[in-house]
UniProtKB/TrEMBL annotation:
Transmembrane segments: none
Name of protein: P-loop containing nucleoside triphosphate hydrolase protein
Family matches, as Pfam families: Sulfotransfer_4 (PF17784)
Stored SUPFAM superfamilies: P-loop containing nucleoside triphosphate hydrolases
Signal sequence coordinates: none
InterPro entries with a match to the protein in the record: P-loop_NTPase (IPR027417), Sulfotransfer_4 (IPR040632)
Length: 217
């Protein structure tokens, strides 16, 4: 493991994961890998161990069930376990991906939280089961009320747990230079920093729904 990107979702984690891959630090384990590798049940097991005391706390051996072969992580579910991953992979550099709180909150509301509250509670899909677990434990299943507190506490935790380690506080908008300096690699010439977002179409759909609702009122 070379790089742990431990910021919360919607802090540029996908763009940073793609940037790291372009720089030769890959593959990176991002949320998109969960369904592809059918890891939902394993992450639920990890969440149960952390928050519900079911089984022993997870360490490197357990995380390697999902992360073996990857050179980095970004986004949820890994970012649910910042302290655990920092301890499990002492050789890894740490990046805290951040952004302005208001922008992050609005983005979460129109993506992860909107999807979570739109799904039927009895949706049996593995991804929904995982989603319900982390929404319940990370912000008490009430993101509008508790999301901002989670954002602040999470960032503080990562900064504290990273003391003494190779660490970068980073926003994707800052681009290649600080990231490349941190990693000790050349800045790609003539290559734009990735602006990746799997949620683009979903956000457009949410905005269209809002417009229709406003027009009907």
């Amino acid at each position: 493991m070379k790089v742990l990107v431990l910021g919360l979702p919607r802090t540029g984690t996908q763009s940073i994961a793609d940037a790291l891959t372009q720089l030769g630090f890959g593959p990176i384990y991002h949320m998109r890998e969960v369904g592809k590798n059918k890891h939902q049940a394993l992450w639920i097991e990890a969440i149960d161990a952390k928050f519900e005391g079911v089984g022993k706390p997870w360490g490197r051996e357990e995380f390697e069930k999902m992360l073996a072969g990857f050179e980095g992580v970004a986004d949820y579910p890994p970012a649910i376990f910042p302290a655990e991953l920092i301890a499990a992979y002492p050789e890894a550099a740490i990046i805290l991906s951040t952004r302005d709180e208001d922008g992050w909150y609005a983005s979460m509301m129109s993506t992860l939280w909107h999807l979570h509250t739109s799904r039927p509670a009895d949706d049996p899909s593995p991804m929904n089961q995982l989603s319900r677990k982390y929404h319940g434990h990370c912000w008490g299943n009430d993101f509008p009320k508790n999301g901002r507190t989670c954002f602040r506490e999470h960032n503080t935790l990562v900064r504290e747990a990273s003391k003494g380690r190779k660490f970068l506080d980073f926003q994707a908008k800052d681009g290649w230079v600080p990231l490349c300096e941190f990693l000790g690699v050349p800045v790609p010439e003539g290559v734009a920093f990735p602006r990746s977002d799997d949620w683009v179409e979903y956000k457009k759909m949410v905005e269209m729904q809002k417009q229709k609702q406003n027009a009907a009122e």
